[in-house]
Every structure is written in structure tokens, then in C-alpha cells.
């Protein structure tokens, strides 16, 4: 039985979606002593993994090669092999459509693949961030179309991913897991499974509560980031440094948590997930005003940055058209290679529209990747050599990677526009720095 297989770790764990969530999850279960399978429709990912190559910066290739060699991890693009897994964890994207409605096509297609291979005794857990009701109203009917019944023939639960790429203090196994089942037995089995691989399991009464939990976490961050982004614009207008204000405020030992402004929102969660809740609200005749306003403020930040760049160049007697501008950082946050929803792409498009001559540097992103909602630009990361920096009319800091030598950057650049307060420790050449 599945319960005994989970208890003695003979259950085979399958993960669908071999990206920034799926691979760390596999790593957690392998370390816990389980044999795993990884499923992805992208054959290139499977080929890289089979060759012992990692395509995620914080997952070492040596670990991938070791797991492949020992057969503790078997990647495949063959969805018919889903029947081999005792537990199947779904970690596929949940983007927004052009009209900012939920795009559940990845979840639905995955559920159909699972339904085609579904056998009695399997546990299915959705981890993809989504709106409350998705597991019960979308995934469950697709799986039960196989003729098998949840809670009797197979088991279904929801446990939201909480991956923080590049954070060494919170790997997948070190982050508590919220778990809610479609019915009690599904919840119990999912809790038992995750208890082997993560530091703590937090059971909740239903999969809807677990789904809402993830949306709440990301909406909380979106709203607070929007607040400091709005204050950044206000404080700049009245001559105050928002970063200095935040540093002073965070000395209060209670009642305040620091959030920081930036050039816009990035990553796979905060720019997207709150709008899933807005969509649900509209279906129920309600308006989520905080979410809508936060989205409006956060999406306006790239344009604010470009206006600051324009003002800084104008002060130097240069129009933005024809000016050489190097963007530092393509990844959505520091010290990772993850470009998803990075505001740098919006900055690139706004600068292109204004006729700037663009280049970029990112030690974690050697080639500008193609992104679903942005124009493709064939660029490779440029080395930050003194002559190159001196040749640029403006260096725009979009992502504050630790690897950057900000003293060197400011020393050799003509103008630096800093969206992350990355140059706060630079002492020489501060007259070249503009904050945005």
C-alpha cells in the first residue's frame, strides 16, 4: 500500500516540471532517501540532466551527475512513464494571459497526461501557484475522467511551492510545507510524504486553504513593495533618500518589516500571483482594490526609472537617443540566474523605443534569453572592463549582484543610475551617481 511505501521510503516520487521549483524539490526527496523521477516536455532539459549537467545556477552539476549515475533521479520526457511514480508532484508554470487572466493550460495539460497514465494507489499533489479552487474544480475532474475516484482509487492534495532561488538559508528542505487534501486520506498521505523531505509540515483543512495561503503570501509582498515604490517617488520629489528612511525605520524592534523599492517586480510569483486572486474576486462581483493599485504602482516603476535616466543624461547634455547605455543585471534578483518576469526586459524595451544603444552585463546570464512577452534582442553579456565602462554614456544598475565591484564601476563610468542602492558604500565618484 502507498502508506507503507511512504513510511519505508520505497515510494517513487515523480516531479512534473524540471525548473527552479521542480529540481530543488527532487533534491530534497533524494536527500531524504527516495528514488525520484523527473518529467518535462522540454527534451533539451532532459538531455542536459541525463548528461549530468545542471542548468540552474544553485544546483551543482556534480550533484545531478551523481544522482543520475546512482539512478536516484531518472529524468524523462515520456509522460507515459507517469504510471511508474507512486507520488506525482506538479510544478508547472501558471502565467497570466494577455488579458491578465489565469493561464492554467500547463496544469490542465499535465493533469491530462497524468489521467492517461493514472493507476490505483497514486498520490497527486499540485504545487503550482494558483487561485483557490483550482485543485478541486480543475484538476480533480480531469483526473476522475480516467474512471478512478479521488479518495478511493487515487489521492489528491495541494501544497504550494515556496522556493526562494539562490537563498542558501532556505533550500527546499528547510522551508515548512503547507498541505491541504481534497479529503482526509489524501491530506494524511501528502503530509506523510513531505514530512520525510522538509523541516516541518503545516496541515490545513482543505486544498483551498493551502491555495489561498500562497496567494496571501505573495499579495502581502506585492502590496508592501508597491508602498515603498510609491514612497520612493514621493521622497525623491522632496529630496529624501528612501533607502536611508527604510534603514532608520527598521531599527524599530516591533511593528515594522522592511521592504525595498526597485525598478519593477520580477520572479515567477509576485508580479503574477496576486492577479489570480483579482480574477477570482471579479467572478464573485468584488474588486480587490489593494491588489489592483499595487499592480498599477509596481508596473509603473520601469517607466519611472527610464524618466530618471533621461533626466540624468539631459543634465549631462545628452539625449537618450543615440546614448550608449549598459544595463547591469538581467536576473530578477541578486545572485541568481533566473530571468523570469525580470523588470530588466521592460527597461530594455523602453530604452529601445527611445533609440538608446544598448548593452548589458550579468555574470549569471551570459546570453540574453528569449522571453515570452518581450522582443528578442541578440546580446551577450559584456565584460565590465574599464575602457568599456568609460565608453558608456550611462550604466544602469537593475540587479545588484554581489559579484559587481561597485567602486570600479563608479570610478570608470561617466554616469551611474542606481535602482537598488547598490552603490551605497561607494565613497569616490558619488557625483556620478543618480538614484532611481
How would you sum up this structure in a few lines?
The protein has 14 helices and 13 strands. The protein has helices at 2-7, 22-31, 43-50, 61-70, 105-117, 134-144, 184-197, 207-237, 242-249, 273-283, 289-315, 343-353, 386-391, 406-412; strands at residues 13-16, 36-39, 73-76, 87-90, 123-126, 155-158, 177-181, 201-203, 324-328, 357-361, 394-397, 416-418, 433-435. The chain is globular, with a radius of gyration of 23 Å.
Major beta sheet summary: 8 strands, mixed
Number of strands: 13
Give the class from helix and strand content and strand pairing: alpha/beta
In whole angstroms, how far apart are the ends?
A: 59 Å
Low-confidence stretches: none
Shape call: globular
Enumerate the strands of the largest sheet in spatial order, edge to edge or round the barrel. 3-2-1-4-5-6-7-8
What share of the residues does DSSP label as strand, in percent? 5-15%
Mean pLDDT: 94
State the helicity in percent bands: 25-40%
Q: Whole-number radius of gyration? A: 23 Å
What is the string of SSEs from the N terminus onward? HEHEHHEEHEHEEHEHHHHEHEHEHEE
Number of helices: 14
What would you say this structure looks like, in words?
There is one protein chain. This protein has 436 residues and is α/β, with parallel strands linked by helices. The protein is built from 14 helices and 13 strands. Helix content is 40%, strand content 12%. An 8-stranded mixed beta sheet has the order 3-2-1-4-5-6-7-8, with helices on both faces. A 5-stranded parallel beta sheet has the order 10-9-11-12-13, covered by helices on one side. The radius of gyration is 23 Å and the shape is globular. The chain starts with a helix and ends with a strand. The mean pLDDT is 94.
Amino acid at each position: 500500500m502507498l502508506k507503507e511505501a511512504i513510511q519505508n521510503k520505497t515510494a517513487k516520487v515523480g516531479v512534473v516540471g524540471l525548473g527552479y521549483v521542480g529540481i530543488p524539490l527532487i533534491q530534497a526527496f533524494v536527500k531524504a532517501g527516495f528514488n525520484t523521477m523527473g518529467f518535462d516536455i522540454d527534451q533539451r532539459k532532459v538531455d542536459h540532466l541525463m548528461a549530468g549537467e545542471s542548468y540552474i545556477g544553485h544546483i551543482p552539476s556534480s550533484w545531478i551527475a551523481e544522482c543520475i549515475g546512482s539512478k536516484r533521479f531518472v529524468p524523462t520526457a515520456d509522460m507515459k512513464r507517469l504510471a511508474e511514480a507512486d507520488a506525482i508532484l506538479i510544478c508547472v508554470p501558471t502565467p497570466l494571459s494577455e488579458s491578465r487572466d489565469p493561464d492554467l493550460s500547463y496544469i490542465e495539460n499535465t493533469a491530462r497526461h497524468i489521467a492517461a497514465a493514472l493507476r490505483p494507489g497514486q498520490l497527486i499533489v499540485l504545487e503550482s501557484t494558483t487561485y483557490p479552487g483550482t485543485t478541486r474544480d480543475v484538476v480533480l475532474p480531469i483526473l476522475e475522467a480516467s474512471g478512478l475516484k479521488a479518495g478511493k482509487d487515487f489521492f489528491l492534495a495541494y501544497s504550494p511551492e515556496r522556493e526562494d532561488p539562490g537563498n542558501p538559508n532556505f533550500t527546499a528542505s528547510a522551508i515548512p510545507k503547507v498541505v491541504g487534501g481534497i479529503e482526509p486520506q489524501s491530506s494524511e498521505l501528502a503530509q506523510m510524504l513531505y514530512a520525510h523531505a522538509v523541516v516541518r509540515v503545516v496541515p490545513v483543512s482543505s486544498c483551498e486553504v493551502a491555495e489561498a495561503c500562497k496567494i496571501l503570501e505573495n499579495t502581502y509582498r506585492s502590496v508592501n513593495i508597491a508602498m515603498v515604490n510609491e514612497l520612493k517617488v514621493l521622497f525623491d520629489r522632496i529630496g529624501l533618500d528612501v533607502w536611508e528612511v527604510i534603514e532608520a525605520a527598521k531599527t524599530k524592534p516591533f511593528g515594522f518589516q522592511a521592504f525595498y523599492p526597485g525598478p519593477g517586480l520580477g520572479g515567477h510569483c509576485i508580479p503574477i500571483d496576486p492577479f489570480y486572486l483579482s480574477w477570482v474576486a471579479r467572478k464573485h462581483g468584488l474588486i480587490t482594490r489593494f491588489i489592483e493599485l499595487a499592480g498599477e504602482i509596481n508596473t509603473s516603476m520601469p517607466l519611472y526609472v527610464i524618466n530618471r535616466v533621461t533626466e540624468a543624461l539631459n543634465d549631462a547634455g545628452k539625449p537618450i537617443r543615440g546614448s550608449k547605455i549598459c544595463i547591469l543585471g538581467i536576473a530578477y534578483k541578486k545572485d541568481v540566474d533566473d530571468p523570469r518576469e525580470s523588470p530588466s526586459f521592460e527597461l530594455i524595451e523602453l530604452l529601445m523605443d527611445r533609440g538608446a544603444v544598448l548593452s548589458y552585463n550579468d555574470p549569471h546570464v551570459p546570453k540574453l534569453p528569449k522571453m515570452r512577452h518581450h522582443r528578442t534582442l541578440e546580446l551577450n553579456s559584456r565584460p565590465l572592463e574599464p575602457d568599456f565602462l568609460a565608453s558608456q554614456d550611462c550604466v544602469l544598475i537593475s540587479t545588484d549582484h554581489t559579484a559587481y565591484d561597485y567602486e570600479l564601476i563608479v570610478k570608470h563610468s561617466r554616469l551611474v543610475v542606481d535602482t537598488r542602492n547598490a552603490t551605497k558604500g561607494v565613497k569616490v565618484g558619488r557625483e556620478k551617481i543618480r538614484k532611481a
